[in-house]
Design goal:
Blueprint (H helix, E strand, L loop, with lengths): L4 E3 L5 E3 L4 E5 L4 E3 L3 H9 L8 E6 L6 E7 L5 E7 L4 E7 L2 H13 L15
Antiparallel strand pairs: 1-2, 3-4, 3-5, 5-6, 6-7, 7-8
Helix pairs in contact: 1-2
């Protein structure tokens, strides 16, 4: 699947009409992160100064977000929240590959401000 990425006036990556990003505790940011980018950010988590990554739409009061945090017991705690769909899920996992893939699919299914919806009409 090919996606057009352009830079907005505020230097944010805009995928189609989508504008969201992943931010880590240490200040790293990746706009419209791919599965590989999420894998990289999660693999760089530690339990001292870079303990979490947050993915959410840009702007005030985002309607959805996902976080991945390093866990004291090893592995990661994943939180997915979508207020528009009344979803709130907290899970744990150890496979960074699985976490990155699942988050990529979850993010793709979210409502994104400005996303044009496809409408099917019968003729």
């Amino acid at each position: 699947m090919l996606t057009t990425i352009r830079m907005s006036a505020t230097r944010r990556a805009v995928v189609g009409d989508l504008c969201y990003g992943a931010d880590s505790e240490n200040g790293d940011r990746i706009d419209a992160p791919s599965e590989d980018a999420l894998f990289m950010m999660i693999s760089e988590l530690n339990d001292s100064d870079n303990t979490f990554v947050v993915v959410q739409p840009d702007g005030d009061d985002p309607v959805w977000f996902a976080t991945v945090a390093s866990s004291d017991e090893g592995g990661y705690e994943i939180v997915r929240r979508d207020t528009a769909r009344r979803e709130h899920e907290v899970t744990t996992a150890t496979s960074i590959d699985t976490i990155a893939r699942d988050l990529t699919l979850w993010i793709a299914a979210r409502d994104h401000p400005g996303r044009q919806t496809r409408q099917v009409t019968e003729s």
